[in-house]
Protein: Peptidase M28 domain-containing protein
Amino acid sequence: MARVTKVSTITISFIILLCILGFYTTQYSVTQPSTETQKPISPSRRSKSHFHDTFLSLSSNYTVSHYLRSLTLHPHLAGTTGAHQTAQYVKTHFQSLGLDTKVAEYSVLLSYPTYLSLTAHLNHLGTREFGFSELGHIGSTVVRPYHAYSPPGSVMGMAVFVNYGRGEDYRVLGALGVNVSGCVVVARRGGGMSRGGVVRRAAAEGSAAVLTYTEGVSVKGVERGTVMKGLGDPLSPGWASVVEGGERLERGDDEVLERFPQIPSMPISIETAEVILRSLEGPRVPQEWRDTLNPKVDRVGPGPTVLNFTYEGEEKISIIRDIFAVIRGTEEPDRYVLLGNHRDAWTYGAVDPNSGTSVLLEVARRFALLMRLGWSPRRTIILCSWDAEEFGMVDRLY
Structure:
């Protein structure tokens, strides 16, 4: 009997000990993290959170729409008066905010159209001459559709459809017995091909000229672009083309010539492409091309439609301007955070690039307001507005 009582006493004592240990273990595991989370937030953490919330609270559709409207009042093709006016607008905006504003000017080789014409001789349907003028706002001139750096030329040849103008597309045409030598090829944009790549491939196949069109845009709209190979100013590849005293290659140097195509080219609208493509005869369009075509094309040619195409242009050294606003960092000023967008456009540039430029101006406005409240960045922030991107990023390699 005494033995049973002794065992029971030991058992009860053991259970009580486990309860005590469990209580303290639970208290430690629960209260210890709680103590950590209740530590007071440091002033620096609180201020960072405050500035972050303030930055987001400054959102205003009105200011962004105002900037976008101001940036798109007139065309601003790089190297033109309109481009200079837009640069001045961005510069004045940065300066009005009290930001440290800098301007870098470069003189680069740009390309502009002087004359172009396209006539289609549609076999029994007569002749169709296409116009390329586009209406602008009052007092504005919109540059005619063209490919920057296209060589001049006057060509007459049968039209032929080459899909995207890839090597595989020409192999398919070859299997159909189609010879594009001396023809004016019509290619749709896409398929992983750049404009310049399409023109170079066409030249390698013996074509005389290239017309490109873009699916998915307005029927009358034309997508301009560059056919130059590579990036940067062709006369100063890899180094800054400063306005005075800078080193330059000659236009006739081999290194420069290899960047430009050998046959003329021009962009056209879907409306123009449809007139040409629906007049073609010859083999039927391969099924793998047909499924995604817009407009629909039945035959690839060549002909019987004959195209008479002329392009004349000028190349000239033009001044471009990059605008920067610098906000010095307080802890790591020699480390930079770059935020930027190009500013030039083929025409008005409401989407590309000014949807981005208007946001850049809004970010600058908010940073300036935060600076008045005592904020400063850890690293140096540089807000960048580049020029002449559309010609082949001739602005952004410096």
In short: The longest helix spans residues 2-37.
